[in-house]
Amino acid sequence: MKTCLECSEKIVGREDKKFCSDSCRNAYNNKINKDSTNFMRNVNNKLRKNYRILTELNSDGKSKATRDKMINKGFDFDFFTNVLQTKTGNTYYFLYDQGYRSLDNDYFMLVKKEI
User: Residue ranges per domain, the chain?
Assistant: First the structure.
């Protein structure tokens, strides 16, 4: 007899079933996928916010924005997912597929990486 991974009730139905209902499946997955600490939650929220800002400012896949404009929207330059150093020596900071690099006069080149 198999039991539900969430509530331990008896499972009726297919042999490979793990949950007794959709609500138990959702509750179980929400529990294992939640951010375990406030620190993780805060970092993930900042990454998501930065990503939304870059996506909004870079709707064409390549554009420019000023530091002030990015900061006024709430962008935090301390949070990014990876760094790309080009052969020409340019450093791009990425949030997933959205990136930026510093230009002169407090401007930033915004780019989107084709995935």
Answer: 38-112
